[in-house]
Amino acid sequence: MSQHRISESTRGVYIISPTPFTEDGKVDLASTDTLLDFYDAKGVTGITILGVLGEAGKLTPEEAAIFLDHVMKRVDGTKPIVVGASNPGTDNLVRFANRAMEKGAAGLMIAPLPGLKTDEQIYAYWQAVLTRLGPDIPVCYQDYPQTTQVVTSVSVLNRLIDDFPNFVMLKHEEGSGLSKISRLRERSDAGKGRRISILVGNGGLYLPQELRRGVDGAMTGFAYPEMLVGVCDKFFAGEVEAAEDLFDIYLPILRHEQQLGFGLAVRKEILRRRGAIACSATRHPGPKMTARDHQELDELMARLDAKLGK
Amino acid sequence: MSQHRISESTRGVYIISPTPFTEDGKVDLASTDTLLDFYDAKGVTGITILGVLGEAGKLTPEEAAIFLDHVMKRVDGTKPIVVGASNPGTDNLVRFANRAMEKGAAGLMIAPLPGLKTDEQIYAYWQAVLTRLGPDIPVCYQDYPQTTQVVTSVSVLNRLIDDFPNFVMLKHEEGSGLSKISRLRERSDAGKGRRISILVGNGGLYLPQELRRGVDGAMTGFAYPEMLVGVCDKFFAGEVEAAEDLFDIYLPILRHEQQLGFGLAVRKEILRRRGAIACSATRHPGPKMTARDHQELDELMARLDAKLGK
Amino acid sequence: MSQHRISESTRGVYIISPTPFTEDGKVDLASTDTLLDFYDAKGVTGITILGVLGEAGKLTPEEAAIFLDHVMKRVDGTKPIVVGASNPGTDNLVRFANRAMEKGAAGLMIAPLPGLKTDEQIYAYWQAVLTRLGPDIPVCYQDYPQTTQVVTSVSVLNRLIDDFPNFVMLKHEEGSGLSKISRLRERSDAGKGRRISILVGNGGLYLPQELRRGVDGAMTGFAYPEMLVGVCDKFFAGEVEAAEDLFDIYLPILRHEQQLGFGLAVRKEILRRRGAIACSATRHPGPKMTARDHQELDELMARLDAKLGK
Amino acid sequence: MSQHRISESTRGVYIISPTPFTEDGKVDLASTDTLLDFYDAKGVTGITILGVLGEAGKLTPEEAAIFLDHVMKRVDGTKPIVVGASNPGTDNLVRFANRAMEKGAAGLMIAPLPGLKTDEQIYAYWQAVLTRLGPDIPVCYQDYPQTTQVVTSVSVLNRLIDDFPNFVMLKHEEGSGLSKISRLRERSDAGKGRRISILVGNGGLYLPQELRRGVDGAMTGFAYPEMLVGVCDKFFAGEVEAAEDLFDIYLPILRHEQQLGFGLAVRKEILRRRGAIACSATRHPGPKMTARDHQELDELMARLDAKLGK
Fold first, then answer.
1. N or C: fewer beta carbons within 10 Å in chain B?
2. Do C120 and B154 touch (CB under 8 A)?
3. Binding residues for pyruvate, per the UniProt record (chains A, B, C, D) (predicted)?
4. pTM for this entry
5. B166 CA to chain A: closest CA distance, Å?
6. What is the ipTM of this complex?
7. d(CA D5, CA D306)
């Protein structure tokens, strides 16, 4: 299984998976199977479960454990599975993390706790978490201030890169400018520090620009994973403009899906319409689509199909 | 047991209890017993467990269940126990709430979810929660924007008072001015709406002023509960100035304990020094006291003892 | 001049203008002229000055007055000029607003003050501002929680629509879902309240979807105003899909320009490259582009030109 | 005048002054005179004007200039006057700062701009401001995250202490725990860096504890400055417990006045009742006291008078 662990050299598309629910709000394991098959058919490199998009905070621990087990069994070593492990308590985080790794997880996705402010506070939090997880558990740092309000400086990232070999991946989704990527890459290119894997989030909203700056792929939940895969493949094959062209076709619906909060409902609904899951319900409190929202999505999906010649 | 349920006419001091841990971080049931005895000896009316002060978010569900069971058995119907039930997922909230009520809880303390902004959003959240809990489960609304960032208007509270008979208590701890209390009381005094119980939080920092404005007591975690009890007793006996005099003696240490975040460590340490618990550790991430912080507390406790003639 | 006042029936594109500076940081009136000519050539309906994009908070009052006078004289009644008037003090807001109207402004753009939370607080603020401005000064409500943190409910907007005839326009740029537009339009369509003008912000990121939901145009600072104009023109001519097609061509660079904070530097730099202003400097504190950022913009602009057949 | 400049060795009480207004909202220069006399009679070391308490953001630049000139002339070199100079634009900040220094100010009080997050961002902001002000203008860093949301680490403060000799004073009012003071003092005591002046804010809520940790006095707006002066005098004379005793007498009203936002109205009203100013009005938007709030203040002031044997 260890060949499946995420590492500094991980490249490709790790799709972030929602947790499918039935109409009456239960975790839907049948839809989990079809969703995993869907992702497989679209060519993703790996799958990330139990993140914000997976509504992890609204599952019971038993549900999370059952879902995790089910996914691990279904995938059965054919693909790396990254598991979201953010938790307000570090004991709980470590316990769940160890359990996920025992089940065969490829690594963990963890976001810093809301409320951390200074560089010192952020570093100290990660120092505790990464130390307690130990050097053998690879971690992806979810750098997403839009929901955590935690803004991580390049300097903190560099300290963590230098001090903790298990910090192997950054999920880059800070929203203003892409220079964080360039600064990280310039340092490792200059031999001044370890080069880690950087995958991009934010639905992939800036994917081509981020690839040009040196990222290794995407870890995000866009409901058309084949675009993410296609763009990365073309880019890594040197077909940069073709990668951009493909991206542009999907951008109108991507930017629609990317609306904060509301986007989760849209994403699940697209997956439902595409046959990946049976029901697009989210758990309370969660966004719901109105009839007008559905009509809007009809129009956007129809335009995408037309562009794709469908 | 139902004579113990909180209601619109609840009056007195509900002390908010921390969760004691052993030096190696386990829930300390022996200290739980001594702590409950301590509270009993100080004359509190009831006890609130598993709130923010109780580090509920850092317990496993199993630990929370064990702690709840242990407290219920130890108290054995002699005092009402209010149980914190805030949760990012409403299904989880309702499930835990029902379990707590089955175990004999007197009611629930619930804070609105971070991220709610407009009156409409806040009302809709409570509408869902209060409806799903049903009319038989009494709820205390923790109105604490300092941690939730949710600011609840008097108008939303009034709508909830009118629409949901199970909204029986407000834990008032919005920090700027006390007119919210007066506005709520003026309405019910004028016969325009139901009068609910209002207990104050914030460590009791404004307790005498809040009593003068018509609150029914306190629900907070000050480590000298005898002060809260004494002030309320004197006030309700008409000895208003004597109530203020008693309050003033404790105010220097109260305002020290009231520091946001850091205060939890101080509070547990005072309880330890007073013999109520064996260890003042908090779980990670949580505040820690330095040697200098301990010295500061020595000085403040010594001054209090001197004033009390000890 | 009053034919130029904004009103409930205003329709079209009001471009939000930056304030051009010289290399040494002075307000650049020569570039102001070329910029106004540029906007005129692109066919905008009106121009909005001294907003956030105009770095109004970093001008001296004298500079703001000189810039305002200069713009009014240059435009000379050929186009309506909306003036940003947000201010921490209401006296200052009203004084500046009156001065702007005397100079011939078409109306004011005002955002609610940061720190307002509840519906009651937000309504009370606007009640004071709209009352003090008086019924003859038309106001555009900048509804932009991404910078103000103030989230305005549909219910507050409806109360303001009913109570203040000078509230004539909403600049819609709340970021999550577009149902606010639909709810406002459904009410006025049902004859339950006044129909006001709604122009969209956010760089136009959702312009086609917002037009389909009933907005009247855009008030935003996208550096290719001809796209905004073209999309609105086509849409209002009934060529909905053609409007979307045109929009999609510009979307990659639009979403790049839309990055919070950083976007101001990109926008000014595009305007410089297009010959509209001489220098793209922003005042401190403000974003700056690195060499790598410039290269990224080269690539995006080249791709746009290629799509446009240039 | 330069003997009056604030410096690393400044000690004592710098009272923060409100800006008095007349009933019709004008700056009240007659009340400014009586207020300055009041502060003088209470024995303050210096006076700080045009801060948040001074409603600086709601004055016109002309009003601020007139008020500054008036204060400087009235005080006429008998006391150091620190001038608030925070500004969203650095050009404006520097221009106003230079003007204030030319008029004889003892130094500037500046808070970091809201929106700064990482250590790097905060340092870079101050680097720009302190460089542009130049080494001859002494600056007090207002470290007040309760309003700015900017949390400054000890590490950033130390870098600024090392790099900028004009950073001579810290106004300490970060609210959670006092270890920042101890860490700064430990470093300079160990000879590892310059010792700067630290004055405390927050109304003086933790003044005795902060003095014990090594601060040099207070810079805050408590409406009974004689307490701040008396506590500091006693403390520096070695009468530590007497200093605490004096503090405790005023603590009930201090903690009342310290309520965020609302406190400004209380403070001005106490000053009015004490004869220091003629009118307690604040400018819109600003807090107002209800009849019930006035009654509450009556009670608190009566209790204070009783304790003082008045």
1. C
2. yes
3. 219
4. 0.97
5. 20
6. 0.97
7. 39
